[in-house]
Write a structure and sequence with these properties.
The chain is of the alpha+beta class. The chain has helices spanning 3-45, 58-63, 77-86, 126-131, 150-161, 182-192; strands at 69-72, 94-101, 104-111, 120-125, 139-143, 219-224.
């Protein structure tokens, strides 16, 4: 056999070998790919169950009174930073004050314009405030006093109407602006003469700690989704 014939045969053999291998691969893997595709699209076509939005039930809502302090853990990056910085027993990053308007419950709270379109005081329906919270994070506390706690809500509404800005300097000596926990601190101190931050004096980040609202001498925990305290009995909420 001459050199040309050898080259032609070896080239043909090489081509046949590659073709054969390709054919075998196609025969083996094509059905698997089809089956995989059918399985994938079959799964994709199946309806996925959406998680229920976070909410209080009717018995829990019935517990609330004006002037209650509602605390939550947000789900954003800033909330993560706050919770990590404070490193508290309760996983919290924000708080507000419960108010009632036209038989509906709302939350007045202070938020920075770094994470909100509005700087400072704003109001949201209770249901919306809960819905924006991390699932299972809400805790509601009530100041222990024989005086009318609804004054806390009235003062919060006053500051909302005044459009008080957010306290970006976190300065407790200046009441022209408030950060979130500074708002109830200032109102309770001004109205009842009680410094709820006093018990945490000397601790790192003392004036930011949400544990101040868990002091059993000053507050009653009305509802605790983090540790599982369920409502025991409904308490009529007070109007303005």
């Amino acid at each position: 056999m001459d050199d040309h014939a050898l080259i032609t045969c070896s080239t043909f053999a090489h081509m046949f070998g590659q073709y054969g291998r390709r054919r075998i691969m196609i025969q083996v893997f094509a059905p698997a790919a089809v089956l995989f595709g059918l399985g994938y699209w079959g799964k994709a076509a199946q309806p996925t169950e959406r998680p229920q939005p976070y909410a209080l039930d009717s018995a829990e809502v019935a517990l609330l009174q004006e002037g209650d302090i509602i605390l939550r853990r947000g789900s954003g990056v800033v909330s993560d930073m706050i919770a990590k910085l404070l490193d508290e027993e309760y996983d919290l990053s924000h708080c507000g004050i419960v108010v009632q308007r036209d038989s509906a419950l709302y939350v007045i709270h202070a938020v920075s314009n770094n994470i909100s379109e509005v700087d400072g005081m704003q109001v949201h329906r209770l249901a919306e405030f809960i819905r924006q919270s991390k699932q299972g994070s809400v805790v509601i506390c009530r100041l222990r006093t024989t005086d009318d706690r609804s004054g806390i809500a009235r003062d919060a509404l006053k500051y909302l109407q005044q459009a008080v800005p957010f306290d970006h300097h976190f300065d407790l000596s200046d009441s022209s602006s408030f950060y979130c926990s500074e708002l109830p601190w200032h109102i309770i101190r001004s109205r009842f003469g009680v410094d709820i931050f006093q018990g945490a004096a000397g601790q790192e980040h003392a004036h930011y700690r949400f544990a101040n609202f868990m002091d059993p001498e000053l507050f009653e925990i009305v509802l605790d989704h983090q540790k599982g305290k369920a409502p025991e009995r409904p308490v009529p909420s007070r109007g303005f």
